[in-house]
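User: Look at the shape:
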Amino acid sequence: MSHVWKKYSFVILFVATSFLMCMYIINTDSDNLDKQVIVKVQEGDTLWSIAKPYAESFGVNTSSVVQWIERENQLNGLPIKDGDQLVIPAVFSKDRDVEVALERE
């Protein structure tokens, strides 16, 4: 066993480290794309008023965020009412195009 370790230790460590790094990268990317916030609608709220702060922080226009919220929450043009809970996109990687993330199904 000592002979094998001396001869292939670099290869074994390289393969093990590569595997661990790949698993870390896969888990990190999927976590960032799936983070969302649940917002409880208050009296007087509109989709526009809820979407505006998110649009500003993402650097996109408000109508894109409104469309994403409508699609993600299956609103289909229905009005929101006090007490409703809406899923809002919360985290986007700075390296990714936010418009693409907003349009994902």
Q: What stands out?
A: The first strand starts at residue 36 and ends at 40. The helical segments are 2-34, 47-58, 62-72, 98-102. The first helix runs from residue 2 to 34. The chain has a mean pLDDT of 77.
